[in-house]
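F.,

This is the one I mentioned.
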């Protein structure tokens, strides 16, 4: 089955990639709450270093942190297309919905800089304790701290645009391009 035309392959692949990585690390499907936090961090860090998000998700202030209802819609389309499944799990009175990728072949290939940011988020946050991830990472990000208004209001993601690039003093895209030139044997590249 194919994905609906309304689902962007890039967003679909982000969800599948995180689901595959989580299953490889834990043997389980990725909990929906964790999936949303990781997507937010990918977009946040991309905005810090690239000045743009990896996905088209638009995060709003919600219970337990940033959220976009489009994430749930993409997950649902992945299930309808039979490339993923959603499994509910009850632990006492708490429901955890997990997304499990059923497809290993990628739907989309990310740019090298996006790939590096995704890899960074996976390495540093994929299996971090949920309480730590929410309270010590997500809740301390600038868009979350500067939220104003009420539940459902759009978070000001633009407040972090290029902040990381400006702080370190180099352009991640230029660095990765230079590394590729060196690997290809074109000598020392200039930044």
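My design for it:
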């Amino acid at each position: 089955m194919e994905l609906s035309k309304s689902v962007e392959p890039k967003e679909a692949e982000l969800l599948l990639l995180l689901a595959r990585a989580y299953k490889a690390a834990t043997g389980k499907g990725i909990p929906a709450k964790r999936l949303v936090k990781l997507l937010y961090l990918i977009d946040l860090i991309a905005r810090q270093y690239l000045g743009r998000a990896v996905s088209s998700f638009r995060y709003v202030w919600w219970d337990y942190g940033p959220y976009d209802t489009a994430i749930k819609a993409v997950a649902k389309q992945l299930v309808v297309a039979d490339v993923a499944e959603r499994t509910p799990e009850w632990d006492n009175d708490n429901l955890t919905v997990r997304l499990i990728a059923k497809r290993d072949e990628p739907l989309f290939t990310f740019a090298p800089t996006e790939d590096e940011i995704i890899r960074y988020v996976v390495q540093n946050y994929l299996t971090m304790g949920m309480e730590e991830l929410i309270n010590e990472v997500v809740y301390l990000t600038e868009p979350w701290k500067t939220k104003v208004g009420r539940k459902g209001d759009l978070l000001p993601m633009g407040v972090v645009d290029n902040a990381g690039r400006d702080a370190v003093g180099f352009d991640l895209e230029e660095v990765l391009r230079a590394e590729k030139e060196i690997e290809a044997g074109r000598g020392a590249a200039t930044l």
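Strands lie at 30-31, 84-91, 94-101.

Talk soon.
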